[in-house]
Specification:
about 375 residues; globular; Rossmann fold; Arc Repressor Mutant, subunit A; 3 domains
Length: about 375
């Protein structure tokens, strides 16, 4: 079996330092240069560099580059024994800012290192055919468990279904494709939608709209919307269907065209919304700037809350409230589930729902004319 690509990169960097007599502080290759040299994704390069940084062989400076560390590189190979018994492959259909895939990888690596196992990263770069080819290749190499992070709700669903019928051990990460039953580790999306909406209600907002990804593209969105509706029912508030707007694409360029249209539709309603729940932070970020262009102030005119807790949400000019998903724990538990199910023959599946945390920020402050109403239990707040 071929040596994992990240291990090749690790050995290349070690050999380069040793062969060229580099000293601590000498500058090394950029991530971009390594990506181009090995024809791999940035995630694979980061995985290799992370291991070297942990060992003190290199250190990295934000926006400054990668440099030789104090630890002397060993000339002999540090490549792991490359066999399917001690490696868990992780297949990623497509990586986005909102997906926080590196956190998932870090969590998976933490668990696997405790078991003297390794994680390999396989990116399909958003190509569904490539994803199928990667998974088929891994099956041919006799891997007993494969972590899979889908992107589209319905993409490759028949392929996954056929594999599951054949007894292939797939562990889905972050989402379960629409209509499938299988092993999965994901966040409690229902509770996240409930907490986000309950927070807005607590702060005096009563006309709450929701902007969400179309179910085909974002299969977690329906659960978050169910949480949104549950919070309305709990507070005896009417659910207005015209307040629930689906965005048909998650492509960045198309999304930026769809959001203004959706906002215009919402703002044209006679009783326009006083708050908007967005089912991910990237939608919330774009909504904020679309509102700003219309001279609508967040939160004075319309409050805003997202989901995921990506870095942009806290760094926005008005920090955007959100719901935190513990992606590190998702990766950790997914890797653990892979190891537990490698030898297990069972007709059932394991589905783990991990808790989420409300992160209140300035974008959803209490209405000026209202004091907060009944409190959400402290255990559910950040």
């Amino acid at each position: 079996m071929a040596v994992p690509k990240y291990a090749k990169i690790t050995q290349f960097v070690l050999d380069y330092i040793s062969d060229n007599g580099l000293q601590p502080g000498d500058k090394l290759f950029t991530e971009k240069q390594l990506c181009e040299k090995f024809g791999v994704s940035r995630i694979t390069v980061q995985t290799a560099l992370s291991d070297l940084q942990t060992d003190g062989v290199i250190y990295r400076v934000r926006k400054g580059g990668t440099f030789v560390g104090e630890a002397s590189p060993v000339k002999e190979s540090i490549q792991p024994q490359a066999d399917s018994q001690n490696i868990i492959p992780f297949v990623i259909n497509r990586d986005t800012i909102a997906s926080r895939t590196f956190d998932i990888i870090a969590g998976a690596q933490e668990f696997l290192q405790s078991k003297s196992k390794y994680l390999t990263i396989h990116s399909a770069n958003g190509n569904n055919e490539t994803e199928r080819e990667i998974i088929n290749s891994l099956i041919e190499q006799n891997f007993k468990a494969i972590m899979v992070k889908p992107f589209h709700g319905n993409a490759n669903i028949q392929f996954y279904f056929d594999l599951l019928k054949q007894g292939v051990n797939l562990v889905f990460v972050d989402m379960l494709p629409n209509g499938l039953s299988g092993n999965v580790v994901r966040s409690d999306n229902f509770m996240g939608g409930y907490l986000a909406t309950g927070h807005l209600i607590q702060n005096g907002y009563r006309n709450i709209a929701v902007l969400h990804a179309d179910e085909d593209k974002g299969p977690n969105a329906p659960e978050r919307i169910r949480g949104y509706k549950a919070a309305h029912h709990e507070h005896s508030l009417t659910i207005r269907e015209e307040y629930i707007c689906a965005l048909k694409s998650l492509d960045d360029n198309i999304l930026r065209n769809e959001i203004p249209k959706a906002l215009d539709k919402l703002l044209a309603i006679k009783k326009r919304p006083d708050a908007i729940f967005c089912t991910n932070d990237m939608i919330a970020f774009d909504v904020f700037h679309a509102l700003k262009k219309r001279n609508i102030v967040v939160p004075d005119d319309i409050a805003l809350i997202g989901f995921d807790n990506v870095a942009l949400s806290s760094k926005n000019s008005v920090a955007i409230s959100t719901v935190e998903q513990d992606f590190h724990s998702i990766g950790y538990q997914a890797a653990k589930l892979c190891c537990e199910t490698e030898e297990k023959i069972s007709p059932g599946y394991t589905q783990l729902l991990l808790p989420v945390t409300l992160i209140p920020r300035d974008s959803s402050k209490a209405k000026r004319e209202n004091e907060p109403t009944e409190q959400i239990p402290e255990s559910r707040q950040a």
